[in-house]
Design a protein that fits this description.
about 80 residues; alpha+beta; 2 helices
Length: about 80
């Protein structure tokens, strides 16, 4: 099954990704870091969710922005 997440950023330094993840968790969101290999090395993506529908992910994106001031992008997961 495909779910949806809100991606908040992709970082070359895992410590930066972990810091954002931790601040999202402190704000009450279910955040995680996902490692992704790219041509330029491994990136650490920070994501919130997952949720079952795109509509729920859009709602989650708005909640994250309202509560933390961080904007994100809705993406399919996994």
């Amino acid at each position: 099954g495909v779910g949806w997440v809100v991606q908040l950023g992709a970082f070359s330094k895992p410590a930066d990704a972990n810091a954002l993840r931790d601040s999202m968790r402190s704000a009450g969101f279910s955040a995680f870091v996902e490692q992704v290999p790219t041509d330029r090395g491994t990136l650490s993506r920070v994501r919130v969710g997952p949720v079952a529908s795109r509509a729920a992910a859009e709602q989650l994106k708005a909640q994250v922005a309202a509560r933390t001031g961080t904007s994100g992008m809705v993406r399919e997961h996994p």
